[in-house]
Amino acid sequence: FQSTVVSIRKHPDFAATGQWDVVTEAGGKQTSHVFDAVMVCSGNFSEPSLPLQCFPGIERFRGQHFHSRQYKHPDVFQGKRVLVVGMGNSGVDIAVEASRVAAKVTISTTRGAWLLSRVFEHGYPWDMILNTRLMSLIKTNLPGPLSWWLINYKVNQWFNHENYGLQPENSWLVREPVLNDELPSYILTGRITIKPGVKEFKDNSVLFHNCPEEEPIDIVVFCTGYTISFPFLEESIVRVENKHASLYKYVFPPQLQKPTLAVLGLIKPFGAIMPVAEMQARWVSRVFKGLCQLPPQAVMEKEVNEKKKNQIQWFGLTFDEVLKTEWLVYLDTLASFIGAKPSVLGLLCTDPWLALTIFFGPCSPYQYRLEGPGRWQGARQAILTQWDRVLKPTRTRVPAGSSSSSLSLLTVVGFLLLLAAVIFGFL
């Protein structure tokens, strides 16, 4: 702790031991260590990408400009005319915060974005509705055009993205949705304006593509993402090209003689990163112990190359898009390596209520503690009562005459059983 990793190099007898020489620095003093294994957990957001060469005229702009990673507090925008370049989650969050104190806020986006509310259908959290085994089965098995139509339909139920200038270009590409509850109302009330990509900067203004008028601005926030780099590693250990690290299952360098170095958290799943990083760590620790074996090098390299092609086809190669993956499918894949993937069909015979809850309900991390290493006796009960804990903080007032919870429960049970009978009847 409180130190910087200067370098990680193979120990002289790495081929036999798999050990690593690690040099750290603290207080101006360097120290060398030898470790049996290394986890690299620097994540996606360590090195900002600021391609100023892509913005003509920025060198003569007299106002202030900085990358979103430098942003700390909205006071810097007090009374200013603010331009936010980029429309990821950070860009939208900064724009919303800035609009509360700034004179004017503009978001510039070249490709638009799908916008989701954290408060989803019937007021439930979005990921507990969308990240279910049923939804994952539908998303991964629908034909491409039908899947794209479904996404368009679903995200436009909240508001029409085209009317708000947010409709993504090349919407057939799978993009990470932006999560923000306030942006539509701020656009509707004029607190935030959406503009196309930047064409050119002037001394105190900016010119957008397909917009003849110049926009006066004082501050530019570049929300242009991050680059992947490992300055403490030799390039031969983890190869990075086109912002893609050549890693088996986004974790292991396939060419190492000994699998004693792993990269954790270098992934952008369509869901929470915490369960993914935990699952990666569970798998990696067992590989380090020799309890799990990796495939041969040729097999891993072939999969890495195929993954690159698929990412280009489905996700594109803009900024961090190459790191995106289907959340539940990836979790299940890693869980199967360590014997922790739940068997829905098996449970249907022994514990049907739990099986139905796992299949139709949210895929919470408890599911991966039902069996295998790290098995937890309380996992079943935690799964069956997860909605109680989600709703308890919101039910601080129960209106008189509210419907009986037991009646609602019976309705849900009946619907799930009916749906299960229909689905399994066609299997």
Automatic annotation (TrEMBL):
It catalyses: hypotaurine + NADPH + O2 + H(+) = taurine + NADP(+) + H2O; hypotaurine + NADH + O2 + H(+) = taurine + NAD(+) + H2O; N,N-dimethylaniline + NADPH + O2 + H(+) = N,N-dimethylaniline N-oxide + NADP(+) + H2O; trimethylamine + NADPH + O2 = trimethylamine N-oxide + NADP(+) + H2O. It comes from the Eukaryota. The chain crosses the membrane at residues 407-426. Its EC number is 1.14.13.148, 1.14.13.8. It is found in: Endoplasmic reticulum membrane. The keyword Protein biosynthesis does not apply. Keywords: Endoplasmic reticulum, FAD, Flavoprotein, Membrane, Monooxygenase, NADP, Oxidoreductase, Transmembrane, Transmembrane helix. It is a single-pass membrane protein. One of its GO terms (cellular component) is endoplasmic reticulum membrane. GO terms for molecular function: flavin adenine dinucleotide binding; N,N-dimethylaniline monooxygenase activity; NADP binding; trimethylamine monooxygenase activity. Its cofactor is FAD. Broad spectrum monooxygenase that catalyzes the oxygenation of a wide variety of nitrogen- and sulfur-containing compounds including xenobiotics. Catalyzes the S-oxygenation of hypotaurine to produce taurine, an organic osmolyte involved in cell volume regulation as well as a variety of cytoprotective and developmental processes. Belongs to the FMO family. This is Flavin-containing monooxygenase 1. The lineage of its organism: Eukaryota, Metazoa, Chordata, Craniata, Vertebrata. The gene is Fmo1.
